[in-house]
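Budget justification note: compute hours in this period were largely spent on complex prediction jobs such as the one shown. Inputs:
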Amino acid sequence: MPEGPQVARYARLQRDVLLGKRVRVDSPNGRSDDVSDILDGLVLRGIEPIGKHLLYDFGKERYLHIHLGRFGNFHFGEMPLPEPRGTLRLRMYTRTHWFELRGAIAIEMFDDDRKAALVARIGPSPLDADADPQRAFAKISASESPIGLLLMDQSIVAGIGNIYRSEILFIHGVHPKNPGRSLDAKTWAAMWHDLVRVMKDGERIGRIVTTDPADRAKPKGAVRREDRFYVYRRTGLPCRHCGTAIETGLMATRNVFWCPHDQPEHARIRSSKAKRSR
DNA sequence: GCTAAATGTTGAT
DNA sequence: TCAACCTTTAGCT
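Corresponding output:
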C-alpha cells in the first residue's frame, strides 16, 4: 500500500543487504516464473526507485521492473525462509536475508529502452535532492486542470499518492478543485518544500504521518489513523485547524478530502504560510 | 462467510 | 470515462 516514500524505503532496505550479492529468485505461486527463471542466481548490481517504480539492475540489460500498485508490499527478514503462505508472487533471498513480494501489479523484465522510456516520463521527485521543482510548476501553472489531479500525475511530480495529495493541499490552504493555473510560484515553492519534508519523513519511518512532528517519531500503532492526517479519511470529523467538518469528493475515481473553510474554492490567491495545529 | 474499500497504473472506448 | 489487474482487511451478516 505504498506511495513514493515507502517504495524508496524498500529500495534502501533491499540495497543494504542484497547489493553485490548473488540473489536467489523464485516464484512460489508460479505467477512470475518467467522472471525468476532469468534472474535466479545473478548478481544484483543496483536498485533504483523511479517514482513509485522499482528497477533492479542485474546487468546486461536485465532489469527487474516492479510496480506495487495499490496493494503490493514486501515482507522481509533474516534467514531461514518462512514457509510460503498465501499468494506469494516472488521471493528474493541470499544466505542471510529474504524478501517476499505480494500483490504487485507489475513484475516483469525491462531492457535499456524500456528503462529509458520509464525514466523519461516520470516527473521530478521531492525525494531526489537534484530534482527541479520548476519543471513541475511549468506544467501546473499552464494547466486548467484541477490541482488535485495534477499532483497525482506522475509525469508532473513523482511519488505523490492519494494521501499526500489531500494532505499537502490542506497544509497550504488550496482547494483540490482549483485550477493549476491559479497556483502562484511562491505557494508552489512552499508546497514543494513541505512535500520534501513529509515525504522524507515517510521514507525514514516507513509510514505516512503528516501532522504533529512528534507523532512521526512514535512507533507504528502508537498513533491512531485519524490522528496521522489533517484531512485524509477524516470526512465529517472536525478540521484540526478550524473545527469545520471535513468534506470529501471524487476526483478521477479517487477520494479527495478538504476543509471547506481553510481551503476556499475558486482560485483565490492566498499566502503560502503553512498551517499546522489542531 | 460475504462485500466493499483501500496509499495505483494501463489500455481500450 | 471505464474496466481490468493485483491482495488484504474492516465491517457487516
